[in-house]
Structure formats: structure tokens, C-alpha cells
Specification:
Helix 3 links the parallel strand 3 and strand 4. The protein contains five helices and five strands; from the N terminus they run βαβαβαβαβα. It is globular and about 30 Å long. By secondary structure, it is an alpha/beta fold.
Length: about 120
Amino acid sequence: MPIRNVLIVDDSKTELMYLSEMLKKAGFAVSTAENAEDAQRRLEHAKPDLILMDVVMPGQNGFQLTRALSRDPRYAEVPIIMCTSKNQETDRVWGMRQGARDYITKPVDQAELMGKIKALG
């Protein structure tokens, strides 16, 4: 399934703007959410082809939301790429165990992100 629609979940407006612009220039349709609750509301209206998920957010964090989505039959097939400043190997392993398909650290390198998206699509 080709990836066209991407949901970015990040509590940083700067990151949301940076990633949105990068993806829009590459031809993707982008929607954003600033926390887990906002992301779940957006998912009820439209299911994306990919989710870019921050880890450190107020309330439910990205690991918790990734685990919940990967276990929900409505969203289990939607790939999630963790997109975070948490750069330890243990963080990457934990993110993958929660159901993420890939893991990328900030600052996001455009070529690396596009390669990961292409590999999923």
C-alpha cells in the first residue's frame, strides 16, 4: 500500500511545522496532533497510511500510544515510526517492542526519513 497520508504526533509546534513542511514538499498529505488524546480524535475521523510518533509528550507518551494503537484492530496495520530525541539503543528496542515499525532520532535527517518511509510503502 503506498503511503500518502501521514499523521505526525508531537507536542512541539516547531517539530510539527518542520516535519509537516518536509513531508508536504515530498508530496504527502499531512495532519498533525499535539498529544495522544488529539491523535486518537484525528484517527477516528481519518486513518492515515503512516504515523510519525514522538515519545516525550504530556499525558500519554508515545510508547504508550504506540502500544495501544498496535493492539487496536482498527489501527494495527498502520505503520508507526518513532520520531524522538531519545537516542539510546534501549529506547529504540522498547519502541519496537511497543509496535513501532522503525525508529528515527531528532534532528530528523530528510533523506533518512524518506528512506524509511519508502521501505514501508
